[in-house]
Amino acid sequence: MSKLAVVTGGTGFIGWNLCERLRDCGFIVRAVVRPTSDNPLPDGVERVDARLRADEMQPSLEGAQVVYHLAGLTRASSYEQFLRINAEGARQTAIAAQRAGTFMLAVSSQAAAGPGTPAAPAREKDEPRPVSLYGQSKLAGEAAVRQIAELRWAIIRPPAVYGPRDRDFLTLFRMA
Length: 176
Hints:
Low-confidence stretches: none
Distance between the termini: 48 Å
Number of strands: 6
Structural class: alpha/beta
Strand order of the largest sheet: 3-2-1-4-5-6
Largest sheet: 6 strands, parallel
């Protein structure tokens, strides 16, 4: 019997690649996508239209071994918009995962830790010092996940990520 993995943010750069990898490893993959999105998903990935609200997402998490929470904003017009998606979205996903008994892997960002220097690189045990509104909102999302009682979770902070289908670094590479 195949294992079920749920991915929020499956139409995004990292989410798309994760969906493909999980599918290729034999998982049944279900992507939770905001109802207003017409962005495609990789072949073989089930689409569930739901907002980042526990009551809307929870049915899609039933029976899943893991939910990978990647949905988020990297650009926003206000800090409130960042918080609504990056912090409250993480909290709502955590609530849905806890209710469904599903392990949650929350993908945060190195920006939540803040910068280091070559002489003093940032370390996991250091107090986070995000310098951007984005980083602050991702740190708030981490705190929201940690506050959900009886939730099995892990949080990772990837650095800048780029590769095929990425558009954020494309401009930088073209400038170079």
